[in-house]
């Protein structure tokens, strides 16, 4: 019996890992994951290397003359006179932009003339500097306040806060709650798609073998339970293989980037990214080792150990897959085609869909009642618990969720085995729910 089950597992496994779709997804996924981590830092570095621009200022208001500040990317020069003549001469003299500041207008208005391409970020740079210059002029002329003193007062009045989580043992750790929420949502969504992808493969495999009558040949030499176990375990091994390859390739790519471009994750780049609207990074002041290490940076994202997140992800992937694949296999055994299977798979899939619908609510309130109960119900816990975990959960909650999922998996295996051994050899009329429940007592 054992050897026959292993043969079925081997067949299911080898058949699927040799498909082009498996190879393509396995290679592309780590690249996408690494791109999400590296791209913000890369964009900052590329922005630092943008072209140098020469700007000729024609100030009709005479407020901004000699007040713009040159930097590594912009050089300001000043002219007065006829704007049309200045424009023609400026572009012949290799100026990139002519900035005309208008007079006698409500507020501060300006025109930016360019010939080929407007340098990236130039308009924002010009507008920001003009805002500062004009505001400082108003401070001096209207309120008689020294702009330098006002700037010093602004710095003194600036509020800063650091989020610090205290665990059950009283240890404190700085982390970013928004990063934890986003990562938790990503984990939940990935778990959802993986479960649906591989559980659906089990359903289609059962339907295919039943519709073309191959199952009758197989059952002449193996038992229905062996065939069921072999198919489920074989596809589970495909999923685990993909996860291992994803982790290995992602780590290798990150390590290669770290070695090839160590400056990409230097502290000043990380600070620039942290100041970018919509981008949140953990406070590197709490990192005990070199802050320019990308792996250390990732570790300090989360309120719990990254190892716990990885182990939990693998656990909930396996258990969630096994729960839904056994139920899908039972569904595939009682119908003759995929369209008929939707009648039975919909009630099974609804909890998974509900979990995805509530992912934002779980992420924003991971300790709420809704989040807690969804992470305890086995049909939703693979998604809900992974959304909650990066923000931190009590150890007993995680263990209870795992225990309930395992207990429910045992029930699903018993349920699927009962249905599969009868349904796989049943053709023609679809059995009613009453008939299916009668099979459980046989």
Order of helices and strands: HHEEHEEHHEEHHHHHHHHHHHH
- Helical run tally: 17
The portion of residues forming beta strands comes to 5-15%
Contiguous uncertain segments of 5+ residues: 267-292
Average pLDDT figure: 78
Write a compact overview of the structure shown.
It contains 17 helices and six strands.
Structural description of this entry:
The chain is α/β, with parallel strands linked by helices and 442 residues long. 64% of the residues lie in helices and 7% in strands. It has 17 helices and six strands. The radius of gyration is 31 Å and the shape is elongated. α6 packs parallel to α11 (306-334), α11 (306-334) runs antiparallel to α15 (381-388) and α11 (306-334) packs parallel to α16 (395-423). The strands form two sheets. It has a four-stranded mixed β-sheet with strand order 2-1-3-4, with helices on one face. The chain has helices at 2-17, 20-48, 83-92, 122-141, 147-157, 177-211, 214-218, 224-260, 267-275, 294-299, 306-334, 338-357, 359-364, 369-374, 381-388, 395-423, 433-440; strands at 53-59, 74-79, 97-101, 110-114, 164-166, 172-174. It has two domains: 2-41 and 175-440, no CATH class; 52-150, Periplasmic binding protein-like II (D-Maltodextrin-Binding Protein, domain 2, 3-Layer(aba) Sandwich), CATH 3.40.190.
